[in-house]
Design brief:
Layout lengths: L1 H20 L8 E7 L4 H20 L4 E7 L4 H13 L4 E5 L1 H10 L5 E6 L18 E5 L4 H11 L5 E7 L3 H16 L3 E7 L5 H7 L6 E4 L3 H5 L1 H11 L4 E3 L2 H7 L2 E4 L2 H16 L18 E4 L1 H7 L5 H7 L1
Parallel strand pairs: 1-2, 1-3, 3-4, 4-5, 6-7, 6-8, 8-9
Antiparallel strand pairs: 10-11
Helix pairs in contact: 2-11, 3-4, 7-9, 9-10
Length: 323
Amino acid sequence: MKKIFAVIISIVLAVMSLFVAAGCFNKADYVVGIVQLVDHVALDAANKGFQEELTALLKEQGKSVKFLNNSASNDYSTCTTIANTYVSKKVDLILAIATPAAQAAASVTKDIPILFTAVTNPVIAELVENWDRPNTNVSGTSDLNPVEKQIELITELVPNVKKIAVLYDTDEVNSLYQVELAENYCNQNNIALVKAGITDINDLLTKFDLLDDDVQAIYIPTDNTLANGADSVHSFNKEKKKLPIVCGEIGMNDKCGVATYGIDYYQLGRQTGKMAFKILFEGAKVAEMPVELYENEPTLKINETVANELGFKIPQKVLDKQK
């Protein structure tokens, strides 16, 4: 009898160890589903910042969080599929990284709180009613960069510049908004802005071929398609035009730009993590949470490696600003 009992205990302990190994007795207090439009430096950094900040804040309160993390490979329908999966799993919160991801998540649930990051203008994207009070189940952090300051930087890189080209994806709502801001600044400062919109990364080479010979610089807003293809942008530019490029965000600028004023997407992700903590632990209502802008000053980042490869000399006036 004792042997039988011992065998039973052994079996029970073995089964319990399997459950523990599988995490069945370590269920997280919260589950957050993350849908990221595409993998590139800026969005990856925002994702990392969000996870690390939310994990740390909950740990301080003796709570834990499990992340379901999926990238959509720059495909809107995949964003929708991922978001639907999170709804079926009844996650506690969804983080959507980039505008199409946020739009997809918002289209499949009006009940689960949704936070976005790396969205430039959530009102134009129809994610919130207004910046101060969303009045939807969506809020988050905007990555609106200092477009005017970035165009002004071009005028310092190329004194007396008369014509600038702007590269952007015509399907990205946030890119169109930034192009509008750039155009307004150029109009006010007697600079011609040539719009070179693309529908996908395969259009790049054609656009470089078609750029006017008198274009003196290129501006690229925070555009996910172009960020994902930043290496190709640099390759084509080096081959075809050798023009100085100023990008909307630092990660893209590190690959194809000569300088920019940009935000830190890791820190932006951390801001979003703080918002998630308020919702999950403190019970804040997402519909009443104002959309937040980046809380720090944009940083000047100079890329002398790319400049040297293009044969472009960065003016000392600009170099001195980084010191």
